[in-house]
Amino acid sequence: MIRPILLHPDPRLKKACAPVVDLTDELRSLADDMLSTMYDAPGVGLAAPQVGVLSRLIVLDCVKAEGETPRPLIMFNPKIVGVSEEMNTYEEGCLSIPEQFADVTRPAEVEVTWMDRDGKEMREEMDQLWATCVQHEIDHLDGKLFIDHIKPLRRQMITRKMVKLKREIARG
User: Please, what is the end-to-end C-alpha distance for the chain in angstroms?
Assistant: First the structure.
């Protein structure tokens, strides 16, 4: 099921999410819905708060090349346990902030732990787009948006554009 994606500004996007303690069928179903929603958008990552659920759950698939096999990841309670000293700057966007982009600098490589949909503990080192994406999505779980990493003036400008967009959508 495709779920509606919350648009910034929305107070739910600024809240820290609760850890997943009990992996239920309802949460697995939410994860599947989130993957469908992300692919439909289209995007490379989506966090539960973006669909109005304040649980520590993200989904990602950074395989974008035509003909390459998709690699959907479902991560419950993802946690960055190691970062490289080397930094990388990517132009980031967000499904909750459509058509707005900004350069964000983050660690180039990260080591991440999480629980998969079967409750199995996972660990992986990520780099390039995967590293940027997983950091971006984990930020969502902590109530942070990519625009929180940019200069205040640019952040205010993007927020004003989003308020205007939401007004236009509400008018129909």
Answer: 23
**CA distance linking residue 94 with residue 101, whole number of Å:** 8
Give the pairing type, strands 73-83 and 109-115.
Answer: antiparallel
- C-alpha closest to that of 145 among 107, 92, 75: 92
Instruction: Kindly report the CATH number that applies to the domain delimited by 11-171.
Output: 3.90.45.10
Per residue in 60-103, pLDDT tens?
999 988 889 999 999 999 999 999 999 999 999 999 999 999 99
Give the active site residues: 137
Count CB atoms within 10 A of the CB of residue 56: 24
pTM above 0.70, yes or no: yes
